Amino acid sequence: MNQENTELLCKAHPELYGDHFAFACPDSWAPLLHRFSSKLLKHARAAGLELTVTDIKEKHNELRIYVDGTDAEADRIIEAAEQQALHVPAQEHQQG
After folding, report:
1. For residues 21 and 11, what is the distance between their CA atoms, to the nearest angstrom?
2. Sequence-ordered strand ranges (E) for the chain
3. Distance of CA 45 to the CA centre of its chain
4. Which of 46, 63, 65 shows the shortest CA–CA distance to 54?
5. For residue 79, what is the DSSP state?
């Protein structure tokens, strides 16, 4: 993901990503990751979870999100985001 999208995500969701998280995925997933991050953070706050996002990457044209400290609802939010990414047109998965 380019620097601009990375900075936007980190600034919008510092509790999840801090200042220097590395997203290893296409820029086309940035809007999806913004929505996902908002949902996950809202749930974490309500449930009192302390989540640690360890990796977000593309693997075999699929979004992979790795988070420590989840509960069943957080896992559902993660799975939903990964499934939504499957609907991004294949050509948008190509990283330059």
Report:
1. 10
2. 52-59, 62-68
3. 17
4. 65
5. H
| pLDDT digit string, tens, across residues 72-85 | 999 999 999 999 99
Bridge partners (DSSP) of residue 63 are 58
pTM, whole model, 2 decimals? 0.90
pLDDT tops 90 at residue 71? yes
Distance CA 40, CA 45 (A): 9
CA distance 78 to 73: 9
Residues, the chain, total? 96
Q: Is 95 helix (H, G, I), strand (E, B) or coil?
A: coil
Tell me the pLDDT tens digit for each residue of 12-68: 999 999 988 999 999 999 999 999 999 999 999 999 999 999 999 999 989 999 999
How is residue 1 written in tokens?
Answer: 């993901």
CB 65 within 8 A of CB 40: no
What the block records as the tokens of 36 is 């996902």
Using CA atoms, how far apart are residues 15 and 47, in angstroms rounded to an integer?
15
